Amino acid sequence: MNDTAAGSRNGILSLTIKDKAVLYSAYMPFLNHGGLFVPTNKSYSVGDEVFMLLTLMDEPEKIPISGRVVWVTPRGAQGNRTAGIGVQFSEQDAAANSKIENHLAGSLNSDRPTHTM
After folding, report:
1. Whole-angstrom distance between the N-terminal and C-terminal Cα of the chain?
2. E strands along the chain, which residues?
3. Residue 87's Cα: distance from chain center in Å?
4. Is the full-model pTM beyond 0.85?
5. Cα(4)–Cα(13) distance, integer angstroms
6. Which of 18, 19, 26, 43 has the highest CB neighbour number within 10 Å of its CB?
7. Predicted confidence (pLDDT) per residue in 42-93, tens digit
8. Ramachandran angles phi, psi of 99, nearest 5°
């Protein structure tokens, strides 16, 4: 995974997920409309609106997603957790959520835990 942001708070995040295991660990199916954990060292606050361009696996097109920060894991968090933000998708991004779930078909009901707060 990698990320870049332009600007401080409401910049554009660019996230590339190249394999299913990384997508599985970043995906947050427990959020309404779905969401992703985005590793970043940029400073965000809960409630900030963000715009993300997501590239999944080897797909040529980037998926535009608008969302809201629902949690922040700061740099230096206990337990060596990766710094980043949890982004909840807006209801207009149902197609992006469906695309993620299609990539993860069969994995979402497994016993392996996904990213947790």
Report:
1. 19
2. 12-17, 35-39, 49-56, 63-73, 84-89
3. 6
4. no
5. 5
6. 26
7. 989 999 999 999 999 888 899 999 999 999 998 888 888 889 999 999 999 9
8. -65, -40
